[in-house]
Design brief:
Blueprint (H helix, E strand, L loop, with lengths): L1 H18 L2 E14 L2 E4 L10 E3 L3 E14 L2 E16 L6 E19 L2 E17 L16 E11 L2 E10 L6 E4 L2 H4 L3 E6 L3 E13 L15
Length: about 230
């Protein structure tokens, strides 16, 4: 399914590129407000914690590239974004950081509402590069952070010259699945546990910079194929 989804993104991009009236491309980066994560301890004897812990929201960061194709007031915008996300579990003895790194490839469809203001939404392919929870045994045990690579994104952006400010919500479309883990009870106050929800959702605030656009490339071939 991962391969088919990427092929669909590439196909839509190529068709859109041949029909676009204008295009622009550039880099972007910013901060994330990350939410999610639920874990329940297993009561396997005296002194073991069986409480349910909901992770506290934390801040992360992201950086990537974009390519925007414009059709009058409508646009298509594929992106490639690296995300560093984390939340924090308030365990009895000390907090534990749940950290996830992912590569996100959203395909956004947007509309120019007024002047410099655009709204957009679309699907995103998300590849988990790494997911860990502090204090697990063995150390840095890999966490299964999602059971499907799909997410949905929606937001609003405002442009001024070559810059844009972007406010976005990114929600995982994976379902919650339980994963059994072991945690260092002596350090964190939780021993065996079930990670009942590993999904993370986030709000993103980005600053984008347009490196180039169709206005600065007057030699672009109209109606040509998908090429770079």
């Amino acid at each position: 399914m991962n391969r088919y989804f990427l092929m669909i993104i590439i196909s839509i991009f190529c068709v859109s590129f041949t029909q676009a009236q204008e295009y622009s491309f550039g880099v972007k980066g910013g901060g994330n407000y990350v939410m999610g994560g639920e874990l329940t301890g297993l009561d396997s004897g005296e002194g073991f914690n069986s409480d349910t812990f909901n992770a506290e929201a934390q801040f992360g960061f992201h950086a990537g590239i974009f390519f925007e194709l414009n059709f009058g007031k409508f646009f298509v915008r594929p992106e490639v974004i690296y995300n560093s996300m984390e939340t924090e579990f308030p365990f009895p003895d000390q907090n534990s950081t749940y950290a996830v790194e992912k590569l996100s490839i959203p395909l956004l469809f947007g509309y120019n509402v007024w002047g410099p203001v655009d709204v957009y939404a679309g699907p995103a392919y998300q590849n988990i590069m790494n997911a860990t929870l502090e204090g697990t045994e063995p150390i840095n045990q890999t966490i299964v952070a999602q059971n499907t690579p799909l997410a949905a994104q929606a937001g609003i952006k405002v442009g001024f010259g070559r810059f844009e400010i972007d406010f976005r919500y990114d929600r995982s479309l994976a379902s919650a699945e339980t994963q059994s883990i072991d945690i260092n009870n002596g350090d964190y106050g939780v021993n065996r546990a079930e990670f009942t929800d590993t999904r993370l959702n986030q709000f993103l605030v980005s600053l984008s910079f347009k490196i180039g656009d169709s206005e600065s490339n007057t030699g672009r071939r109209r109606g040509g194929g998908c090429y770079f």
